[in-house]
Amino acid sequence: MQRTIELSWVFLVKKCYQDTDTSLQSSIITKVKGVTFTNTSELGERLWDVADYVIPPQGENVFFVITNLVVTPNQRQETCAESESIPDALCYEDSDCPPGEPVVAGNGVRTGRCLWAGSEQKGTCEIFAWCPVETKSRPAKPLLGEAEDFTVYIKNFIRFPKFNFSKTNVLDTTDRAFLKSCKFGPKDPYCPIFRLGSVVSWTGSSFQEIAVQGGVIGIQIEWDCDLDRAPSECYPRYYFNRLDNRFSENSLSSGYNFRFAKYYRDAAGVELRTLFKAYGIRFDVMVNGKAGKFNIIPTVINVGSGVALMGVGSFFCDLVLIYFIKKSHFYRDKKYEEVRDLEVLARMAESSQQSVAPDAAGLAEQPEVQDGVGAQENGCVCRQLLQPARSGHQGNGKVNVEQLQNLQTVEA
């Protein structure tokens, strides 16, 4: 029974009768859709579409959606005071700001002057940079919180080169309205269009919370194809996880942000820029999988290996039970009890035969005596007295006590 279960596990569950291919070739195409409106003092009224909040604009296996912003408008290259939040920029006198040296983790290069704000004793170094420098902090409420309702279309092409098998995660249908109306979910698991808020919620996080300082979401597509079945049975499975440090909101490692700028010139031809510090959600789409198909070579190899391993397994089990456990003698007695009893009986039978044969031979060589002759002649006991003793010996292998007493009386 146990061997039947093991063989069923190997062949039915693990499918060891198949040749497998794990060298999956994959391509990802992503498209995000959705618009939102904002009205801020830095940017005024503004409509945000895909070209504004998706980076890079050509979706691949990694794409970023902006959810929060720190905006520093109308920067130009000139001299200004460095930010007070940068420790390397603090100074007490001009000698603390050697000209030409950049400020570590700062925004520009020192000019050699120390600038004081009001009557404070400590100032900051003057720098040549894009001024004014960024000084605002991150908003407590996400600027693009409505991105929760945006959707992303994930198209995945795969190929297993060993079997020359190709597949895509888009449902094979001629209905052009299918992709415009469907959304991935329990009711429609074969639709490749995902709502961003749902993707984040499937990781156990809240979209509005992660949108404040950003985060990283992993979308894993797994293909496990049994090519002994119809191609329609090969379909993707999706798994969603949050990859950044989600357990400590104040941790420096949590969140995701970066800076970028948009450049332009004013009426006088001076180059200006607007600096954006973007917080948002980075989506990493990862694809893996394997395919299997029947092949006689792995079938034969696994059958032989399974049979050999079952024999070796019983040997090692006996070895452990007999020699390595504390109460091994119980197992040893039970295992070898029948063999030991047969061996003892064989030895007892052999010894009994050896003890009876010489006595019988000795009695056969005794000379005949006549009736009425004395009790002992030529050192032999008379035949009448020996006959009962000999029959008793042949019957049960023992001499009767009464016969021994009569024998002693005759000899006297």
Automatic annotation (TrEMBL):
<dbReference type="Pfam" id="PF00864">
    <property type="entry name" value="P2X_receptor"/>
</dbReference>
<feature type="disulfide bond">
    <location>
        <begin position="97"/>
        <end position="125"/>
    </location>
</feature>
<feature type="binding site">
    <location>
        <begin position="257"/>
        <end position="259"/>
    </location>
    <ligand>
        <name>ATP</name>
    </ligand>
</feature>
<keyword id="KW-0813">Transport</keyword>
<comment type="function">
    <text>Receptor for ATP that acts as a ligand-gated ion channel.</text>
</comment>
<dbReference type="GO" id="GO:0005886">
    <property type="term" value="C:plasma membrane"/>
</dbReference>
<feature type="transmembrane region" description="Helical">
    <location>
        <begin position="303"/>
        <end position="325"/>
    </location>
</feature>
<feature type="disulfide bond">
    <location>
        <begin position="91"/>
        <end position="114"/>
    </location>
</feature>
<keyword id="KW-0547">Nucleotide-binding</keyword>
<dbReference type="InterPro" id="IPR003048">
    <property type="entry name" value="P2X5_purnocptor"/>
</dbReference>
<protein>
    <recommendedName>
        <fullName>P2X purinoceptor</fullName>
    </recommendedName>
</protein>
<keyword id="KW-1133">Transmembrane helix</keyword>
<comment type="similarity">
    <text>Belongs to the P2X receptor family.</text>
</comment>
<dbReference type="GO" id="GO:0033198">
    <property type="term" value="P:response to ATP"/>
</dbReference>
<dbReference type="InterPro" id="IPR059116">
    <property type="entry name" value="P2X_receptor"/>
</dbReference>
<dbReference type="GO" id="GO:0098794">
    <property type="term" value="C:postsynapse"/>
</dbReference>
<keyword id="KW-0406">Ion transport</keyword>
<feature type="disulfide bond">
    <location>
        <begin position="80"/>
        <end position="131"/>
    </location>
</feature>
<keyword id="KW-1003">Cell membrane</keyword>
<keyword id="KW-1015">Disulfide bond</keyword>
<dbReference type="GO" id="GO:0070588">
    <property type="term" value="P:calcium ion transmembrane transport"/>
</dbReference>
<comment type="subunit">
    <text>Functional P2XRs are organized as homomeric and heteromeric trimers. Homotrimer. Forms heterotrimer with P2RX1.</text>
</comment>
<dbReference type="GO" id="GO:0004931">
    <property type="term" value="F:extracellularly ATP-gated monoatomic cation channel activity"/>
</dbReference>
<keyword id="KW-0407">Ion channel</keyword>
<feature type="binding site">
    <location>
        <position position="151"/>
    </location>
    <ligand>
        <name>ATP</name>
    </ligand>
</feature>
<feature type="binding site">
    <location>
        <position position="277"/>
    </location>
    <ligand>
        <name>ATP</name>
    </ligand>
</feature>
<dbReference type="InterPro" id="IPR053792">
    <property type="entry name" value="P2X_RECEPTOR_CS"/>
</dbReference>
<keyword id="KW-0325">Glycoprotein</keyword>
<keyword id="KW-0472">Membrane</keyword>
<dbReference type="InterPro" id="IPR001429">
    <property type="entry name" value="P2X_purnocptor"/>
</dbReference>
<dbReference type="GO" id="GO:0001614">
    <property type="term" value="F:purinergic nucleotide receptor activity"/>
</dbReference>
<keyword id="KW-0812">Transmembrane</keyword>
<feature type="disulfide bond">
    <location>
        <begin position="225"/>
        <end position="234"/>
    </location>
</feature>
<feature type="binding site">
    <location>
        <begin position="31"/>
        <end position="33"/>
    </location>
    <ligand>
        <name>ATP</name>
    </ligand>
</feature>
<dbReference type="InterPro" id="IPR027309">
    <property type="entry name" value="P2X_extracellular_dom_sf"/>
</dbReference>
<feature type="disulfide bond">
    <location>
        <begin position="182"/>
        <end position="191"/>
    </location>
</feature>
<dbReference type="GO" id="GO:0005524">
    <property type="term" value="F:ATP binding"/>
</dbReference>
<keyword id="KW-0675">Receptor</keyword>
<keyword id="KW-0067">ATP-binding</keyword>
<keyword id="KW-1071">Ligand-gated ion channel</keyword>
